[in-house]
Amino acid sequence: MPFVELDTSLPAERLPPGLAHTLCAAAADILGKPAERVNVTVRSGLPMVLSGSAEPCAQLVVSSIGVVGTAEQNKGHSARFFDLLTAQLGLGPERILIRFYPLEPWQIGKNRTVMTFL
């Protein structure tokens, strides 16, 4: 059950229509998970500073069970997410950061229990 959160200083009107759905489909493909299990949040127009600069930027946080736990996995994921984000947002790769967080099933609550028991 991946969680993908995109924060950007770009105003909403500069984001492509359907960005959340595009990001959902891409994350499902990149992480090898069904789109029905991917959760996406897009927050735009945020006051942000990246590497000391307030120029337009974005940060992506990807959290998931089992697919973001190693440097080797994340190197491949990173390249594919960067390709998507630079194309969709019109930002250079130097204005984007990605953070990967591995999750355990007991850290996700769903249907009054945790994923461990589902």
From TrEMBL:
Where's it found, cell-wise? Cytoplasm
Offer an example of a GO molecular function term for this protein. D-dopachrome decarboxylase activity
Top-level division of the source organism's lineage: Eukaryota
Top-level EC class: lyase
Q: Which GO terms describe its biological process?
A: melanin biosynthetic process
Q: Name one Pfam family in it.
A: MIF
This protein's UniProt keywords: Acetylation, Cytoplasm, Lyase, Melanin biosynthesis
Q: Check the record and name the InterPro entries matching this protein.
A: Macrophage_inhib_fac (IPR001398), Macrophage_inhib_fac_CS (IPR019829), Tautomerase/MIF_sf (IPR014347)
Recorded family membership: Belongs to the MIF family.
Job of this protein? Tautomerization of D-dopachrome with decarboxylation to give 5,6-dihydroxyindole (DHI).
Please give the subunit comment from the record: Homotrimer.
Q: What is this protein called?
A: D-dopachrome decarboxylase
Organism for this UniProt entry? Lonchura striata
